[in-house]
Design a protein that fits this description.
The chain is α/β, with parallel strands linked by helices and 365 residues long. It has 14 helices and 12 strands.
Protein backbone atom coordinates (compact mmCIF):
# COMPACT_ATOMS: atom_id res chain seq x y z
CA UNK A 1 0.00 0.00 0.00
CA UNK A 2 1.50 3.41 -0.94
CA UNK A 3 2.41 5.77 1.88
CA UNK A 4 0.18 8.82 2.34
CA UNK A 5 1.18 11.94 0.47
CA UNK A 6 -0.65 14.37 2.73
CA UNK A 7 1.28 16.75 4.96
CA UNK A 8 0.37 19.33 7.57
CA UNK A 9 2.28 22.61 7.53
CA UNK A 10 2.35 24.78 10.66
CA UNK A 11 3.51 28.38 10.64
CA UNK A 12 3.65 30.93 13.42
CA UNK A 13 5.43 34.06 12.31
CA UNK A 14 7.03 37.24 13.58
CA UNK A 15 3.64 38.93 13.93
CA UNK A 16 2.88 36.62 16.89
CA UNK A 17 -0.82 36.48 16.05
CA UNK A 18 -1.25 32.71 16.13
CA UNK A 19 -0.62 29.48 14.26
CA UNK A 20 -1.67 28.73 10.69
CA UNK A 21 -2.26 25.07 9.80
CA UNK A 22 -2.64 23.77 6.26
CA UNK A 23 -3.35 20.18 5.21
CA UNK A 24 -1.88 19.65 1.76
CA UNK A 25 -2.09 16.60 -0.50
CA UNK A 26 0.31 15.84 -3.34
CA UNK A 27 -0.60 13.76 -6.37
CA UNK A 28 2.73 13.59 -8.09
CA UNK A 29 3.81 17.20 -8.58
CA UNK A 30 0.28 18.56 -8.23
CA UNK A 31 -0.66 19.89 -4.80
CA UNK A 32 -4.10 20.61 -3.39
CA UNK A 33 -4.96 22.20 -0.05
CA UNK A 34 -7.57 20.04 1.67
CA UNK A 35 -8.21 22.20 4.74
CA UNK A 36 -6.84 25.15 6.70
CA UNK A 37 -7.21 26.35 10.27
CA UNK A 38 -6.04 29.31 12.34
CA UNK A 39 -5.59 29.28 16.12
CA UNK A 40 -5.07 32.64 17.76
CA UNK A 41 -2.41 32.99 20.44
CA UNK A 42 -3.80 33.64 23.92
CA UNK A 43 -2.66 37.11 25.06
CA UNK A 44 -0.37 35.64 27.73
CA UNK A 45 1.40 33.42 25.17
CA UNK A 46 1.82 36.29 22.72
CA UNK A 47 3.22 38.49 25.49
CA UNK A 48 5.70 35.82 26.59
CA UNK A 49 6.91 35.14 23.02
CA UNK A 50 7.39 38.87 22.57
CA UNK A 51 9.26 39.16 25.86
CA UNK A 52 11.55 36.27 24.91
CA UNK A 53 12.66 38.12 21.78
CA UNK A 54 14.96 40.19 24.02
CA UNK A 55 17.25 39.07 26.87
CA UNK A 56 15.50 38.74 30.20
CA UNK A 57 15.36 37.02 33.59
CA UNK A 58 15.38 33.20 33.68
CA UNK A 59 14.87 33.09 29.94
CA UNK A 60 16.12 29.51 29.44
CA UNK A 61 13.42 28.05 31.69
CA UNK A 62 10.80 30.43 30.30
CA UNK A 63 11.71 29.49 26.73
CA UNK A 64 11.46 25.77 27.50
CA UNK A 65 8.08 26.21 29.17
CA UNK A 66 6.83 28.34 26.28
CA UNK A 67 7.98 25.68 23.81
CA UNK A 68 5.80 23.14 25.61
CA UNK A 69 2.82 25.50 25.55
CA UNK A 70 3.34 26.21 21.87
CA UNK A 71 3.59 22.51 21.05
CA UNK A 72 0.25 21.87 22.73
CA UNK A 73 -1.26 24.66 20.63
CA UNK A 74 0.32 23.22 17.48
CA UNK A 75 -1.19 19.83 18.31
CA UNK A 76 -4.62 21.43 18.66
CA UNK A 77 -4.18 23.08 15.28
CA UNK A 78 -3.27 19.74 13.68
CA UNK A 79 -6.32 18.02 15.16
CA UNK A 80 -8.57 20.88 14.04
CA UNK A 81 -7.35 20.88 10.45
CA UNK A 82 -7.67 17.08 10.24
CA UNK A 83 -11.19 17.25 11.67
CA UNK A 84 -12.14 19.79 9.01
CA UNK A 85 -10.94 17.39 6.31
CA UNK A 86 -12.49 14.33 7.98
CA UNK A 87 -9.10 12.62 8.11
CA UNK A 88 -7.15 10.77 10.79
CA UNK A 89 -3.50 11.01 11.72
CA UNK A 90 -2.69 7.79 9.84
CA UNK A 91 -3.49 9.61 6.59
CA UNK A 92 -0.70 12.17 7.14
CA UNK A 93 2.89 11.40 6.22
CA UNK A 94 4.45 14.17 8.33
CA UNK A 95 4.01 17.55 9.94
CA UNK A 96 6.28 20.41 8.92
CA UNK A 97 6.44 22.83 11.86
CA UNK A 98 8.35 26.09 11.67
CA UNK A 99 8.08 26.86 15.38
CA UNK A 100 8.02 30.35 16.87
CA UNK A 101 11.08 32.48 16.23
CA UNK A 102 12.29 34.30 19.32
CA UNK A 103 15.83 35.15 18.16
CA UNK A 104 17.28 35.38 14.67
CA UNK A 105 21.02 36.05 14.78
CA UNK A 106 22.56 34.69 11.57
CA UNK A 107 25.73 36.74 12.07
CA UNK A 108 26.30 34.64 15.20
CA UNK A 109 25.28 31.42 13.44
CA UNK A 110 21.94 30.73 15.11
CA UNK A 111 18.21 31.22 14.82
CA UNK A 112 15.90 29.99 17.60
CA UNK A 113 12.40 28.66 16.91
CA UNK A 114 10.48 27.31 19.88
CA UNK A 115 8.79 23.94 19.39
CA UNK A 116 9.13 20.60 21.13
CA UNK A 117 9.11 18.15 18.23
CA UNK A 118 8.91 15.13 20.51
CA UNK A 119 5.83 16.43 22.30
CA UNK A 120 4.14 17.35 19.03
CA UNK A 121 4.81 13.87 17.61
CA UNK A 122 3.56 12.28 20.84
CA UNK A 123 0.39 14.37 20.86
CA UNK A 124 -0.51 13.82 17.21
CA UNK A 125 0.86 10.38 16.35
CA UNK A 126 2.49 11.88 13.26
CA UNK A 127 6.17 12.28 12.38
CA UNK A 128 7.30 15.86 12.92
CA UNK A 129 9.89 17.69 10.83
CA UNK A 130 11.13 20.90 12.45
CA UNK A 131 14.33 22.94 13.04
CA UNK A 132 14.43 23.93 9.39
CA UNK A 133 16.91 26.78 9.69
CA UNK A 134 19.90 25.21 11.47
CA UNK A 135 21.30 23.22 8.56
CA UNK A 136 21.38 26.23 6.25
CA UNK A 137 23.05 28.28 9.00
CA UNK A 138 25.58 25.49 9.51
CA UNK A 139 26.41 25.73 5.81
CA UNK A 140 27.17 29.43 6.15
CA UNK A 141 23.74 30.71 5.15
CA UNK A 142 21.32 33.13 6.77
CA UNK A 143 18.81 30.36 7.52
CA UNK A 144 16.23 32.70 5.97
CA UNK A 145 14.15 33.32 4.08
CA UNK A 146 13.17 29.71 3.41
CA UNK A 147 9.95 30.19 1.42
CA UNK A 148 11.54 31.31 -1.91
CA UNK A 149 12.23 27.69 -2.90
CA UNK A 150 8.52 26.96 -2.47
CA UNK A 151 7.57 30.18 -4.27
CA UNK A 152 9.75 29.15 -7.21
CA UNK A 153 8.13 25.72 -7.33
CA UNK A 154 4.57 27.08 -7.09
CA UNK A 155 4.51 30.57 -8.59
CA UNK A 156 7.23 30.74 -11.24
CA UNK A 157 6.39 31.50 -14.87
CA UNK A 158 8.19 30.69 -18.12
CA UNK A 159 7.03 33.96 -19.67
CA UNK A 160 6.45 36.55 -16.92
CA UNK A 161 8.99 38.07 -14.51
CA UNK A 162 7.27 37.84 -11.13
CA UNK A 163 8.07 38.82 -7.58
CA UNK A 164 6.36 37.35 -4.53
CA UNK A 165 6.35 39.62 -1.48
CA UNK A 166 5.51 38.00 1.83
CA UNK A 167 4.43 40.78 4.20
CA UNK A 168 4.51 39.14 7.60
CA UNK A 169 6.14 40.75 10.62
CA UNK A 170 9.18 41.13 8.39
CA UNK A 171 8.77 41.53 4.62
CA UNK A 172 10.68 39.29 2.24
CA UNK A 173 10.86 39.17 -1.51
CA UNK A 174 11.28 36.27 -3.93
CA UNK A 175 12.50 37.29 -7.37
CA UNK A 176 11.26 34.88 -10.08
CA UNK A 177 12.73 35.84 -13.45
CA UNK A 178 11.67 33.43 -16.23
CA UNK A 179 14.59 31.18 -17.01
CA UNK A 180 16.86 33.02 -14.58
CA UNK A 181 18.26 32.48 -11.10
CA UNK A 182 15.73 32.68 -8.30
CA UNK A 183 16.81 35.10 -5.60
CA UNK A 184 15.22 36.28 -2.37
CA UNK A 185 15.89 38.22 0.80
CA UNK A 186 14.34 40.06 3.72
CA UNK A 187 13.81 43.66 2.63
CA UNK A 188 12.82 45.25 5.94
CA UNK A 189 9.80 45.56 8.21
CA UNK A 190 6.44 44.25 7.11
CA UNK A 191 3.81 44.59 9.83
CA UNK A 192 6.08 44.47 12.86
CA UNK A 193 6.45 48.22 13.45
CA UNK A 194 2.88 49.09 12.48
CA UNK A 195 1.57 46.38 14.81
CA UNK A 196 3.79 47.48 17.69
CA UNK A 197 2.73 51.11 17.31
CA UNK A 198 -0.97 50.18 17.12
CA UNK A 199 -0.64 48.00 20.23
CA UNK A 200 1.15 50.82 22.05
CA UNK A 201 -1.40 53.53 21.22
CA UNK A 202 -4.66 51.77 20.39
CA UNK A 203 -4.36 48.70 22.58
CA UNK A 204 -5.10 46.53 19.54
CA UNK A 205 -2.72 43.94 18.04
CA UNK A 206 -2.81 45.61 14.62
CA UNK A 207 -4.28 48.49 12.60
CA UNK A 208 -7.10 46.68 10.80
CA UNK A 209 -7.01 47.34 7.05
CA UNK A 210 -4.70 50.29 7.71
CA UNK A 211 -7.65 52.49 8.75
CA UNK A 212 -5.70 54.41 11.38
CA UNK A 213 -2.79 54.92 8.98
CA UNK A 214 -5.14 56.31 6.32
CA UNK A 215 -6.23 59.07 8.74
CA UNK A 216 -2.68 60.26 9.40
CA UNK A 217 -0.24 62.32 7.36
CA UNK A 218 3.17 61.02 6.37
CA UNK A 219 5.99 62.76 8.23
CA UNK A 220 8.57 63.05 5.45
CA UNK A 221 11.37 63.92 7.87
CA UNK A 222 10.72 60.81 9.95
CA UNK A 223 10.32 58.70 6.83
CA UNK A 224 13.70 59.87 5.55
CA UNK A 225 15.26 59.02 8.90
CA UNK A 226 13.78 55.51 8.88
CA UNK A 227 14.91 54.89 5.33
CA UNK A 228 18.52 55.61 6.35
CA UNK A 229 18.62 52.29 8.26
CA UNK A 230 21.75 50.53 6.83
CA UNK A 231 20.04 47.14 6.58
CA UNK A 232 17.82 48.43 3.77
CA UNK A 233 20.79 49.22 1.53
CA UNK A 234 22.76 46.06 2.38
CA UNK A 235 23.37 43.61 -0.45
CA UNK A 236 21.54 40.26 -0.27
CA UNK A 237 21.74 37.57 1.02
CA UNK A 238 20.30 39.20 4.12
CA UNK A 239 17.68 38.55 6.77
CA UNK A 240 16.45 40.36 9.85
CA UNK A 241 13.89 40.29 12.64
CA UNK A 242 12.65 41.94 15.83
CA UNK A 243 16.25 42.20 17.00
CA UNK A 244 16.49 45.24 14.71
CA UNK A 245 13.00 46.44 13.83
CA UNK A 246 11.40 46.83 17.25
CA UNK A 247 9.53 49.50 19.19
CA UNK A 248 12.71 50.71 20.92
CA UNK A 249 14.40 51.22 17.53
CA UNK A 250 11.40 53.21 16.36
CA UNK A 251 10.99 55.39 19.46
CA UNK A 252 14.64 56.49 19.22
CA UNK A 253 13.86 58.10 15.87
CA UNK A 254 10.57 59.85 16.62
CA UNK A 255 10.36 63.49 17.68
CA UNK A 256 8.45 64.00 20.93
CA UNK A 257 5.94 66.28 19.19
CA UNK A 258 4.97 63.68 16.57
CA UNK A 259 1.29 62.76 16.41
CA UNK A 260 0.71 59.00 16.85
CA UNK A 261 -1.59 58.80 13.82
CA UNK A 262 1.00 60.52 11.66
CA UNK A 263 3.63 58.06 12.87
CA UNK A 264 1.37 55.16 11.85
CA UNK A 265 0.89 56.67 8.38
CA UNK A 266 4.66 57.09 8.16
CA UNK A 267 5.30 53.49 9.17
CA UNK A 268 2.98 52.28 6.43
CA UNK A 269 4.87 54.49 3.98
CA UNK A 270 8.15 53.10 5.33
CA UNK A 271 7.12 49.49 4.75
CA UNK A 272 5.83 50.41 1.28
CA UNK A 273 8.97 52.29 0.27
CA UNK A 274 11.33 49.62 1.60
CA UNK A 275 9.52 47.00 -0.50
CA UNK A 276 9.37 49.18 -3.61
CA UNK A 277 13.03 50.21 -3.49
CA UNK A 278 14.08 46.58 -2.97
CA UNK A 279 12.00 45.50 -5.98
CA UNK A 280 13.53 48.23 -8.14
CA UNK A 281 17.06 47.51 -6.97
CA UNK A 282 17.18 43.71 -6.87
CA UNK A 283 14.32 42.62 -9.15
CA UNK A 284 14.98 44.78 -12.19
CA UNK A 285 12.50 44.13 -14.99
CA UNK A 286 9.79 42.68 -12.73
CA UNK A 287 6.43 42.61 -14.51
CA UNK A 288 4.03 41.56 -11.73
CA UNK A 289 4.05 41.60 -7.93
CA UNK A 290 2.07 39.12 -5.82
CA UNK A 291 1.52 39.64 -2.09
CA UNK A 292 0.97 37.08 0.66
CA UNK A 293 1.03 37.12 4.45
CA UNK A 294 -0.98 39.31 6.81
CA UNK A 295 0.00 42.50 4.99
CA UNK A 296 -1.94 41.34 1.94
CA UNK A 297 -5.09 42.03 3.98
CA UNK A 298 -4.05 45.62 4.76
CA UNK A 299 -5.94 47.55 2.09
CA UNK A 300 -4.07 50.77 2.79
CA UNK A 301 -0.73 49.04 2.32
CA UNK A 302 -1.82 47.30 -0.89
CA UNK A 303 -3.13 50.58 -2.31
CA UNK A 304 0.07 52.42 -1.36
CA UNK A 305 2.27 49.77 -2.93
CA UNK A 306 0.25 49.74 -6.13
CA UNK A 307 0.51 53.53 -6.34
CA UNK A 308 4.25 53.33 -5.75
CA UNK A 309 4.77 50.58 -8.37
CA UNK A 310 2.90 52.51 -11.08
CA UNK A 311 2.05 50.36 -14.08
CA UNK A 312 3.40 47.15 -12.54
CA UNK A 313 0.32 45.29 -11.25
CA UNK A 314 0.18 44.39 -7.55
CA UNK A 315 -2.13 41.49 -6.69
CA UNK A 316 -2.22 38.79 -4.03
CA UNK A 317 -1.25 35.17 -4.57
CA UNK A 318 -4.98 34.42 -4.84
CA UNK A 319 -4.52 35.44 -8.48
CA UNK A 320 -2.13 32.47 -8.76
CA UNK A 321 -4.53 30.07 -7.06
CA UNK A 322 -3.22 30.18 -3.47
CA UNK A 323 -4.91 32.12 -0.68
CA UNK A 324 -2.34 34.64 0.64
CA UNK A 325 -3.17 33.77 4.26
CA UNK A 326 -1.93 30.19 3.87
CA UNK A 327 1.15 30.44 1.65
CA UNK A 328 3.67 30.03 4.46
CA UNK A 329 1.87 27.15 6.18
CA UNK A 330 1.67 25.36 2.82
CA UNK A 331 5.38 26.09 2.33
CA UNK A 332 6.25 24.20 5.52
CA UNK A 333 4.17 21.24 4.42
CA UNK A 334 6.23 21.40 1.19
CA UNK A 335 9.48 21.56 3.16
CA UNK A 336 8.45 18.54 5.24
CA UNK A 337 7.82 16.63 2.02
CA UNK A 338 11.25 17.67 0.76
CA UNK A 339 12.81 16.20 3.92
CA UNK A 340 10.87 12.94 3.58
CA UNK A 341 12.04 12.62 -0.02
CA UNK A 342 15.61 13.68 0.96
CA UNK A 343 15.59 16.68 -1.35
CA UNK A 344 17.12 20.09 -0.58
CA UNK A 345 14.81 22.79 0.75
CA UNK A 346 17.04 25.86 0.54
CA UNK A 347 18.26 28.01 -2.33
CA UNK A 348 21.93 28.99 -1.84
CA UNK A 349 21.42 32.10 -4.00
CA UNK A 350 18.82 33.22 -1.45
CA UNK A 351 20.38 32.31 1.88
CA UNK A 352 24.06 32.38 1.01
CA UNK A 353 24.64 28.78 2.11
CA UNK A 354 27.55 26.84 0.65
CA UNK A 355 25.16 24.65 -1.32
CA UNK A 356 21.75 22.94 -1.38
CA UNK A 357 20.89 21.23 1.89
CA UNK A 358 18.14 18.96 3.23
CA UNK A 359 16.54 21.10 5.91
CA UNK A 360 15.13 20.01 9.25
CA UNK A 361 15.25 17.09 11.62
CA UNK A 362 12.67 14.36 12.21
CA UNK A 363 10.91 13.37 15.43
CA UNK A 364 9.21 10.04 14.65
CA UNK A 365 5.74 9.37 16.06
Amino acid sequence: MPRPESYVGLMSGTSLDGVDAALVHWDGAAASTLATHFLEYPPTLRAECLALSTPGHNELERAAATGITLSSLYARAVRAVLDKAGMGSASVRAIGCHGQTIRHRPALGFSIQLVDGSRLAEATGIDVICDFRSRDLSAGGQGAPLTPAFHADSFGSATEHRAVVNVGGIANITNLPPGGTVTGFDCGPGNVLMDAWAQHHLGTPFDEDGRWARKGRVDTTLLGRLLCEPFLAATPPKSTGRELFCLDWLVRQIDSAAKPGDVQATLLAFTTEAIAVALETWCSGVQAVFLCGGGARNGALVDALQLRMGSIPVNTTAALGVDPDWVEAIAFAWLARRWINRRPGNLPAVTGAAGPRILGGCFPA
